[in-house]
Design goal:
The structure is a single chain. The chain is an all-alpha fold. Helix content is about 80%, strand content about 0%. The radius of gyration is 18 Å and the shape is elongated.
Length: about 80
């Protein structure tokens, strides 16, 4: 069973409870998270776009002395995403 299938099952199993608690929209948001990924997934994508994809973070640190550029890019992404 995939994560998407498990999430769908949980959503269906808890639909009545979510409706009673008035949080159906929030529960349904789980589908979007599964489809597009989490904030952590996006942060890793931004980080990897700014570091050679063939290097691990440790290797990049050793070779460059500082993965600061990639980390700054992630920080900028978090700030921009938060303001949206």
């Amino acid at each position: 069973m995939t994560v998407a299938e498990m999430v769908e099952r949980v959503i269906c199993d808890t639909a009545a409870d979510a409706a009673a608690l008035g949080c159906t929209a929030e529960i349904n948001r789980c589908r979007a998270i599964v489809g597009s990924g989490t904030s952590a997934d996006a942060q890793l994508t931004v980080f990897e776009a700014h570091i050679d994809a063939q290097l691990t973070v440790f290797e990049a640190h050793i070779q460059s002395g500082n993965p600061g550029t990639a980390l700054r890019a992630v920080t900028e992404w978090i700030a921009a995403a938060t303001l949206q």
